[in-house]
Amino acid sequence: MQSLRRITLLAIWVLCLLFNSAFAVSSNGNEGGSADAAPTPVELICHPGKECYPKTFVPTTTFLPVEADQVIPAGLHVRLNIGSGGREAKIIDPNEDEGTAVYVEREKKEQLQAGMAYSDLVVVPDQDVDQGSVINPGLGSNETNSPPPVQHIPPEPENYKPNPHLSNSDWETFHNAVAVLKESAPQTASLIEALRKLSELSHEPEYGVKLIEMTLQKLINIISSSDYTTSIRSSAAITLGNSLQNNAVALSRVRKLFGTATKDVVLHPLLTCLLKNQDVILNRRLMFAISRTVRIHNGKQDFVSLNGLGTLEKVYAATNDLPLRGKIAAFLQDEFLDMEMREMDVKSGVKAGSQTVIKTKENLSGWCEVLQSDLVGRNNEEGNGDLDSEVKVLATLKALKDKYGNDCKAKPELKGWLGGERERVGKEDDDDSEWIKVPLEEVENAFFGATA
Q1: Tens of pLDDT along 216-238?
Q2: What CATH number is given for 169-306 in this structure?
Q3: Contacts of 237 (CB under 8 A, 6+ apart)
């Protein structure tokens, strides 16, 4: 009897063991899995005041927004939402007829191309990839049916490294401000404070790069929208200009994000806003932003193709703000006269690139008359005008004369104005007067020969 009981208990124990093993295999969905294996932890990214999200983007069959600092797995359909400035991704649908921009690991290129017939398959390098560079350029949020053109984008500086000295508190301030900027309808007071902080932080190159990656479209939207106050729009323009100033990586990021659409998405709204806006301070800030934006690769050609020079001439003639006129004059000299349209010439396989002169058919000689009309309209008796702008206009006028020679003719009133100004300056006995003597003499010599 006891033996039978032992055999019965042993049989029950064996059955329980077999049932438990079968359940473990089923729950893991893998015959080789272990019932005790812990689930793989998901690495999250968390920012203050914002819900955490996975570091690696989790795709579905519908387009979902991709956070700026998320990693996009290879082989997804990715597009740029022009309205929000952000990226969206989903699982590839083989039944879709439209072309797709796909992230592809280099070693999987042949495999994917053999099994898929996508019109604009994009192969992403394995090392240090800026994922925004493979988004279809020049398209709206629902347009992905044109293959991206081949672009030669200047390489980023090899010595670019994150700044280890940026404090955690500054990073926290930065991310909090960016979070406000990305809200669909931020409170006015919060937006003003966020832009104030970002305009200060954007001088730091690393913050500038991150701002371009995360908020470029939002900054452009604020700058060009009359829904915001001119003060807010001015702060956004300063932040954009600061982010691009002396920041080769940030400049490269713009072209990588928007490709050939950069002209329409970035430069065109800035020029349109400058032409239509009447606020003096905002226009000065816009001119600052434009002067930095044209340094994007191919930026000067884009500027010319949008009739940017004609826009500046209209703004110059329409405004009575002397500092703005000075900024426009300095822009012409810095970007089109002294620099002679110089930009990086990057050929395939060339890492460093070289400086080359870009030839255009644009003739700036018409600005000779525009600048002279400005100068002779200034009263020699005032002596308290904007000397900074006067110096910039004089320097640009001389550069035009040097470049165009007889095509840059003196207006009849110019010689008299120059003489009157030199006489006024001679009576002054301060540093400002000494500062303006040289450009006055240079312009007089250029147009009328050396004085006795």
Answers
A1: 999 999 999 999 999 999 999 99
A2: 1.25.10.10
A3: 223, 282, 285, 286, 288, 289
